[in-house]
Amino acid sequence: MSKYAPHHSSSSARATSSTICQKCLKTGHFTYQCKNKPPYVSRPSRTQQLEKPSVLAKLKETGKPSVEVPAEFKQKSGTANKILEAKEKEREKEKQKDKETGKRARSTSSSSGSDSGSDSSDSSDSDSDSSSRGPLLSLTINMGGSAFLTGNFPRLPPALYHSFKDRHTSVLKTLYTLVATPVEAPEKVDHGDIDFIVWKESDLPSHDTVTKALGATMVNPMDGPRTSNYAVALPGDDNYYQVDVHVCAAEEEFHRTMFFHSYGDMGMILGLIARGMGLHLGVHGLKYPQPPHPAWHLSSKFDDILPFLGWDIRRFEEGFGTRAELYQWLSSSPYIRPEMFTSANSVGKVKPERKMYYDFVEWAQKQDMPPASTTSLKEAALDHFGKREEVEAFLRGKAAQAKYKAAFNGKLVAEWADLGQDWRSVKIIMDRVRSECGGDEGLSRLVGEKGDEVTPILINLVQSAKGSCGIREHE
Predict the structure, then answer these.
(1) Strands 216-220 and 280-282
(2) pLDDT tens digits for range 355-380
(3) Rounded CA separation 352/103 (Å)
(4) Could you tell me which of 343, 271, 339 has the C-alpha nearest to residue 311?
(5) Across-strand partners of 244?
(6) What are phi and psi of 146, to 5 degrees?
């Protein structure tokens, strides 16, 4: 018995009604006797503790520093919004003051005096603020890019988004061979960031080069074929918009990424619907799942994948002017089942933050969809993409490998050779048997050919190898 275990004796004390168990917090038994589950006991946070008047008073009496929670941290609206609102009020006051004094913002020529020139510059700045930043400030509640921990990232209205996108596209084309932005989701009223898909075969520009070209002030650099985030300053204090640059490893990946990330959450929706069909669809193409083994790659060509899954590729190439048109196309596959969009299914499990995806699931749940085709797409995919022979050969090999390991392993050899825990001798014997039978491949073939009759053969081989290696039995 462990010296730390409770020792019971006839003279040991008994638990009373006042005895408190440290595990379940109930009375009447000792902790080591407890068979109850530990309860969840909520405790006040440090902020809640520090907000207690009694705690603050005690700290002040002892002369310790005040730990009172600052007022800005108690407000739920956010410090950024408060600062932006204050800046907006200041600009309104300046504009009102200019009107009262008769000043007007005009573009002055170079012959204007220094005083009038400075007045014109101030006024034009104020006008540019009201025209460019006005729409941004009205949307500061719905923040844009979220890759940076500092700064304000308001969502961009379409006019600013397209202006910035065109400007950055021209610059990035001087650094990369292929540059494009995925097609935006239909009826999108604002944008959180600007996404660029780029590719260059070699001599990729450095992050510093891209940062200077974009005019960015902050960057989250990612080496290799990954996405780097850049923060470009907007007019105003600490205002930015985010530019994401995804570098592709190959030209084919560029085109696949452009398709899969077009129309907002379209690629995510396609992938989850394909999962409901028993397949895996992602930016790298279509795969055949075969757990516990890795998924088998079927194809990277979306021109072939989409028609197989029941989606009309020509209709996609025509484009979608509204979300309703896109939703109709997404639900047009004959292999879609209505139960895919229930909350119990992975397609139906969606968070409201994914706005377009959430709207599509809500829309699909209201549709009267026809019964799905009874064709098993998962098995049909092997024939369509010519992968059945490869997959079946792979699975046969895995099954033979598992059978071989079950018939010939260290535990069995130790038992057959009476070696106990002498694993060094076990390894020597196993290596000798493998060598005599043509390696793992030869042993696996022997197990496959002999089936249940292979055990006596393996025992003889082990005994023979033990004798030839001069290994004694375990004492």
Answers:
(1) unpaired
(2) 788 888 888 878 776 665 656 788 99
(3) 49
(4) 271
(5) 195, 229
(6) -125, 20
